[in-house]
Amino acid sequence: MTESPRVVGRRTDVSGPGLAGAVTDLVADCAPEMDDVLVVPDCHYAFHPSTGMVTNPDVVEALVEALASTTDVTLALPDSQWVEDAPSMLGYDALADRTGVETLALGEADTVERTVRIDDERHTVTVPKPLDEQAVVAVPTLRADPDLAAAMVTVAEAATGSRERSDVVAASAVVDPEFVLLDGTYTFTGAPHKGRFLVAGTDAPAVDRAVAPVAGLKPKAVDYLRPFGVGREAIEGLHAEDLAAELPHEQTDPNGGEQPAVMGAGYRLYAKMTGDLVPPQFSGGSDD
Amino acid sequence: MSDLRVGLLGAGNIGTVHLQSTRGIDGASVVAAADVVPDNRARAEKQGVPRTYEDYTDLLAEEDLDAAIVALPPFLHAEATVAAAEAGCHVFVEKPFARTVEEGQRMLDAAEANDVSLGVDHTIRYQPEVQTLKEQYDAGRIGHVPLASIARINNGPFAAPPARQPVSGWMLDPDATGGGALMDLGVHLFDVLEHFFGELTVEYAHVDASMDLPYEDSALVVVSTEAGTQATVSAGFFQWETPPEITGYFRLEGVADTLRSEDHLPKQFMAHAAKSALENVSKRARGQEPAYFKPTYYYQAHYRALKDFLDAVAAGEEPPVNGAAGLRMVEHVQTAYEMAEGTRAAANAGANVEVTDD
68-107 in B: which are within 8 Å (CB) of A? Predict the structure, then answer.
């Protein structure tokens, strides 16, 4: 019988010595021996880290310090498809200056094509070569915006710039992080929350299965987990149900508050009837 | 008198608001629009603009215009305004009027040399709840106002979650924008304070950024005014905004009572929209003009600002929010930036910061 990969968690402060201690303990407890590691945070957009929508750079800094005592560490920073220089805005240039860690702009790295079989279909992804060749440590945040984005999405967005199911599955299989430190200092589950926890593990799908219920989602509801299994995963040292009860579980508007197209059609009809004017958010697709 | 012939320079989001607004203003019509983005030109054509151009200089060369609306990014305001003035157009300019005082002065000089008027789209003074406060203040309902506070906070160039649209590079370039939240939003707030209390003097300023941004995402300024009111001005780019709800307020602490802008906003924007729409249907049935943009509430201010400008141009009068006013607001921002820099330098040197008249 195959032994299930460990997923370990603990409560933490959001910064300072309490955070550094928690990170060091988790690295000592469950990180494998690694050489020449790439640390990959979630910095997909210039959201403030207190929102939980991106990884808290303080967690990354504590992790870099903890890993640097045993191996060479490089901070691998993906391009954001939304905001130029998002990692810099999130403070990673300053972090590199403080810690002396080398940085690697993943968008400028050589790439390799890899093909993965998913549900009897072949899917090819192009990923930065260093993510394919080196030991990767993923440092996701816990966000549900509204779909779950944790370890596997962070890896996929860094590797491919995509969070489409097939890209998430394939990129996760190709990159296959050696270690995941999920940052729950701040979380986003429809609303920000100071979660004050960390979850670590050596298997990205196992970490995602473990934290999905914390975000209020059953693993089987997370489509990209299916090829890796959707059973419940316990977190040593934490109760997922207790954490879930602490977090807000609000609906995230996928349009970010912008009006859906159907309202535009209704408004244009109203404007045509009354002679009123049509604001730009309602004018899309109009033949008026 | 024939309609004012208006050229629209920039047909993006705010340009579309002005295009629509012009449709509701008697005696004016947009005869041509220019935009480098093909989709924006196509949208303008669908909305009835007879001719569109990729380059606004071609529009100015080809068209016989009375007025131009500059709805381009801030780094093009000066160039486009000067070109439009030299083409003999009265010019309505989006805010901020200019990126620097020098640019703004060049725009004023061009207008004077060509005997045309300039106007600025400072909209907050035209918001219904602010107009209500102005009526009550002017009527002396709270007496003298020793203290006031005004704020406007939004998400600047960024979006509320989830990430879904790329941010244009110029929006994150302070050379292109002229500054951050204080330049983009603070100019409106200074305009409101001057509208209420007369000439402003910037007394203190501090700016900061909550991330490593190329400009400030929060600004706090203290001003004194001709009327003897001291006011705090808060501008920010840090808060997620989900329209129609927006974050902003204006509060006047008078000797007899307090006036709050929030007290005069719709309690429920959706209910307000539905009620206003029904009112407009009823007006239509009676053959009356609708209350333009009333269901969407905040766009009313853009309509009123542009209408005031075009009405003044048609009457041969100076626009109520003219180029000199636009330039003064940019001067206040520039003063605040210089003061904030001094405040920061002094604080970094360990000084107990005190701003004096010296």
Answer: none
pLDDT band at A287 (very low <50, low <70, confident <90, very high): very low
Neighbours of B212 (CB within 10 A): 17
Length of chain B: 358
Residue A156 tokens read as 């996929």
DSSP 8-state secondary structure symbol assigned to residue A45: S
Same domain, B127 and B243: yes
- Domains of chain B: total: 2
Residues in B 273-302 with any Cβ partner in A closer than 8 A: 277, 280-281, 283-284, 289-296, 299
Assess whether B104 and B173 both reside in one domain: no
Q: Which structural domain range is residue B53 located in?
A: 4-121
How far is Cα A212 from Cα B314, in angstroms, rounded to an integer? 63
Taking only the tens place, the pLDDT of each residue in B299-357 is 999 999 999 999 999 999 999 999 999 999 999 999 999 999 887 766 666 655 454 54
Identify from B8, B164, B212 which residue to disrupt to test chain A contact, counting A C-beta atoms within 10 A and taking the largest count. B212
Residues of A in contact with B306 (CB under 8 A): none
Cβ neighbours of B291 in A, within 8 Å: 276
Q: By CA distance, what is B242's nearest residue in A?
A: A257
Residues B75 and B148 in one domain: no
Beta pairing class for B218-225 and B230-236: antiparallel
Q: Could you tell me which chain B residue has the CA closest to the CA of A45?
A: B163
* Secondary structure of residue B322 in the 3-state scheme: strand
CATH number for the domain spanning B265: value is 3.30.360.10
Q: What is the pLDDT of residue B298?
A: 87
Q: Are residues B306 and B324 in the same domain?
A: yes
Give the percent of chain B with pLDDT over 90: 85
